[in-house]
Amino acid sequence: MPTATYTFPAGFLWGTATSAFQVEGNSPASNWTAWTNEPGRILQGMKPGLACDWWGGRWKEDFDRAAESGQNAHRLSVDWARIQPAEDRWNEDALDYYRQIVRGAVERGLLPMVTLHHFSDPLWLSEQGGWANPKSPQYFEAFVRKTVEALKEYVSLWVTINEPNIYYFSGYLTGEFPPGHHGDLESTFQVLCNMLRGHAAAYRTIHEIQKNARVGLAHHHRPLRAARSWMPFDQLIAHLGPQVMNAFPLALKDGKVRFMLKQASLPEVVHTQDFFGLNYYAINLLKFVLKPADNFIKTSFPKEAEVSGSGFLANLPEGLFESFRWARQFNIPILVTENGIEDSDDGLRQRYLVEHIHQMWRAVTYSWPVKGYFHWSQIDNFEWERGWTQRFGLWGLNTETQARIRRKSVDIYAEICRTNGISSEMIKKYVPALTGKLFPG
Ligand code: BGC
């Protein structure tokens, strides 16, 4: 076997990503706290409880471990409901605590990337219709102003909104997320447009406050294919799927929102991202089924793919490369803001990690502007409607004792981060089965 190293450019960002509701614990009144208290909404009735107890201070040990394993950045989010518990009230203590957290990241050599909205909304906003309310963009803008003012000393890399497409798809089309609507195209379109307005307002506000800020969103990109190439209905949904899933970032190109048969013109949203934040997990095959309750779609993975424990994801690294190719149309630097797999026994994660990072290296060698990678996630955390049934952490979590459990994947990711590359020795040591594939010859 030849010895070789796939090296990344100097200054490449290596980190992990988390989100407030999923790790903080004891979350205040939000759409998601209310949702987790409703019977039947979360698998096995699971509750976030203390989550990873970040609000109790355990972010410190998780940041220590991240830094010790060679990471140089961390993506985290703030919970709007903590910062603005009521429409007319700000919680200065919460802002102070977030300031401690981001300072803690900087002190450990982790560049903080802060997401301002990651699925959870304050309850007072949900009670007024959430993002379907025409006032939501201005509410969001006020919250962003307050938060950026408070954190600007330590943070200049911002994500406005995490995965607007998953938010409206799961909240208004499939009903797995709050507010649990099914097939509600009208509200989906309102939410999409209001989130675009909110994002653009946030972009301008952040730049007004902070000249050197870099601001983007985190877009969930999922390459979609017809399950049966000969079936016109499969082809139709594989053609419409990307319109539904990519309407948000595409509107940032020309100010035109195109969603199914609906259209809107929002010229103010054009060019409101400094980098493209890409969340990639897997490719999906789409099959047309006569089931309106499922929006006429059954999803699966390509046959040859290694599927994760619960069948939720699969190891399809070529989809990351395809997503980069797609994201290049925005002509801005690309950051992988999430990528990972649920794998409680860690049997697949090492291969998933290495093969995805290898595809990222391929993109870099094409001189595509990929600048960093944030693995989802540093530690197991509360997986939304799937509760604790799925484990995405490099580190496992015992929710009873709060003990962190080291998984094998910690070591290979640490070596990649420390050496800024993937070497043939590393592959031989951790994932020998991939040697011929990654280092042929
Ligand atoms: C979300 C994360 C989530 C991950 C895995 C992404 O869509 O942004 O919050 O934990 O998927 O389910």
Could you name the CATH topology?
TIM Barrel
The strand line-up of the biggest sheet is: 2-3-4-5-6-10-15-16
The major pleated sheet works out as: 8 strands, parallel, barrel
The tally of beta strands, per DSSP, is 19
* Oligomer state of the chains in this structure: single chain
Rounded to the nearest angstrom, the distance between the terminal CA atoms is: 6 Å
Bound ligands:
beta-D-glucopyranose
- Cα-atom radius of gyration: 21 Å
Number of domains: 1
Instruction: Please count the helical segments.
Output: 15
> What is the residue-averaged pLDDT?
98
Low-confidence stretches: none
Query: What is the CATH first-level class name?
Result: Alpha Beta
Q: What is the name of the CATH superfamily? A: Glycosidases
Task: State the helical fraction.
Answer: 25-40%
CATH architecture: Alpha-Beta Barrel
How is this structure best described in words?
The protein has 15 helices and 19 strands. It has a single domain (12-409), classed as Glycosidases (TIM Barrel, Alpha-Beta Barrel), CATH 3.20.20.80. With 441 residues, it is α/β, with parallel strands linked by helices. Strand 15, helix 12 (349-365) and strand 16 form a beta-alpha-beta unit. The model has no long low-confidence stretch (mean pLDDT 98). An eight-stranded parallel beta barrel has the order 2-3-4-5-6-10-15-16, surrounded by seven helices. The chain is globular. It has helices at 20-23, 31-37, 54-68, 80-83, 92-107, 123-126, 136-151, 164-173, 185-209, 232-254, 318-327, 349-365, 409-419, 424-430, 435-438, and strands spanning 5-7, 13-17, 73-77, 111-117, 157-162, 214-220, 224-226, 256-259, 262-265, 276-279, 284-288, 297-300, 306-307, 314-315, 334-338, 370-375, 395-397, 404-406, 421-423. Beta-D-glucopyranose is lined by residues 19, 22, 162-163, 166, 220, 279, 338, 376, 383, 392. Beta-D-glucopyranose binds at residues 19, 22, 162-163, 166, 220, 279, 338, 376, 383, 392.
